[in-house]
Write a structure and sequence with these properties.
The protein is an alpha+beta fold. Among the domains are: 98 residues, Chitinase A, domain 3 (Roll); 42 residues, Thrombin, subunit H (Beta Barrel), CATH 2.40.10. 35% of the residues lie in helices and 26% in strands. The strands form 3 sheets. Strands 1, 2, 3, 4 and 9 form a 5-stranded antiparallel β-sheet that branches. Helix 3 packs antiparallel against helix 4.
């Protein structure tokens, strides 16, 4: 028998989620998502989650606990543990003047901190349904539990990826975790907010961590250019430099020759006098 999964374990999974009628609504597989016309994920590929931390919907998270590493099968999640039961009272009538542009039926819109779907437009009013689009629906997952993550650095990287969507470089020495902040992340609102959740999770789930440092590194611009462009561009630059040097030397030679001629003419005039 394989190893049983417990709450707090880091596990790598992949899945495809569908409605009961077979409509695919989410997948960690990019090709499956593209075929289904879904392009909502920031990134695709296997997902590392912490069991019990609700990195996936509640019903799937609960179902993973107690399964064995290597599990591959179908998980059915009822509405109350997926996107909630459908609530008819979550519909509101909103005047069209509240919208920047005239909405269309079926359009997802944001009003304040809420998202809804335009159900109908009657005169100068729109009926907006603030239920989740999949509220009241059972979700079926084709799930694969691939492995349990034990390495401390991989766990830290996974938490930053989950909460900030950024890949980070990590070093751990004597209880101090040093995380290299990706270039430009300091101006990314998602990273600015998410880093605190990542830090909190590191302290909660990883033992012997006494301090976490976020480090920004700024290499010399020449070094960045070298890393980005590669040897071919370097070669081109050397050729350009050589051409520029040759051209510059030629101009300097002509300039010197002209100066010597002017000097000679001046000396001749002085001798005539």
């Amino acid at each position: 028998m394989g190893e049983s999964i417990s709450r707090g374990d880091f596990v790598k999974i992949s899945y495809t989620a569908r409605l009961e009628d077979g409509t695919i609504i989410d997948s960690t597989d990019e090709e499956v998502a593209k075929s289904a016309g879904i392009m909502e994920r920031v990134r695709y590929g296997d997902l590392i989650i912490v069991v019990g931390d609700r990195h996936v919907i509640e019903g799937l998270d609960d179902a993973i606990e107690g399964k064995e590493i290597g599990f591959e099968g179908e998980i059915e999640v009822p509405p109350e543990k997926a996107f909630g039961e459908y609530d008819p009272d979550k519909k509101e009538t909103i005047t069209l003047t509240k919208f920047k542009e005239r909405p269309e039926i079926g359009q997802r819109i944001q009003i304040g901190d809420r998202w809804g779907t335009v159900e109908r437009i009657i005169g100068r009013r729109a009926i907006v349904d603030f239920n989740h689009p999949y509220a009241g629906k059972k979700i079926v997952f084709d799930l694969k539990i691939k492995e349990k993550i034990e390495d401390k650095i991989e766990k830290i990287k996974a938490l930053f990826l989950l909460y900030t969507t950024k890949d980070v470089n990590v070093e751990v020495n004597d209880g101090v975790v040093e995380v290299e902040v990706p270039r430009g992340a300091s101006f990314d609102q998602y990273f600015i907010i998410g880093k605190f959740s990542a830090i909190d999770s590191i302290f909660r789930h990883i033992e012997d961590v006494e301090e976490i440092r976020l480090v920004e590194k700024f290499p010399r611009p020449e070094k960045i250019a070298k890393e980005v462009t590669g040897e071919n561009v370097q070669a081109d630059e050397k050729e350009d430099d050589a051409e520029e040097t040759s051209e510059t030397q030629g101009k300097r030679g002509k300039q010197k020759e002209q100066e010597e001629q002017e000097k000679l003419k001046t000396e001749e005039k002085s001798a005539e006098k």
